[in-house]
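Collaborator request, handled under Task 6.
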Amino acid sequence: MSLAKTLFQNRFEDFISLAASSKFLVIKSKEHKLLFGFNVLMLIVHILSVSLFVFLTYRLLTSETLVDSGNLLLRIITAYGFIVLLKITVEKIIANVFDIDEIMDAYIFQKQTYLNFISLIIFGLSLFLVYSDIPSLPLFYMIIAVIIIALSYTLYAIVKKNLRLISRFWFYFILYLCALEIAPYVVLYKLITKY
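Structure tokens returned to the collaborator:
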């Protein structure tokens, strides 16, 4: 995060103000460059923040003591990073197949920008979870509620911004949401709870 702030100071300040205004999305959405240095750094921060939160969740909800917690954290980072990169790749392939590259690039940029921003919130809440004196389980449920609210707002903001396009193809949008946004997390949840 410090590297992103140092190398891309103006972009980082616009990015941080995303909660108050959509200036960052308006200005930077025309670029659609997922491999731009700032976007890559923030994607790494996103993967690390969410992985840390998943690790803390696992540690909080299981009663077993973790002997090799560094190895588990590395596995979580690798698995989550693979899932995120796979989802982006599949979305890009689908966009290319259906010849909607420009629309999908804008969508992926908006979605990833909001997710990167939410990951900063998750990182702060994870630190609070680790270092606070408040009982962990109620605090954990409060953090989950904040994350769900933030993700719901993200979906609302993206739908509101693309309402005209979505209303023309609402069936495909619902199909996309079920197949590529909800299903991977359901499968991941089933795999985690089974093993």
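The cover message to the collaborator said: "Residues 2-194 form one domain. The mean pLDDT is 82. Please let us know whether this matches your experimental observations."
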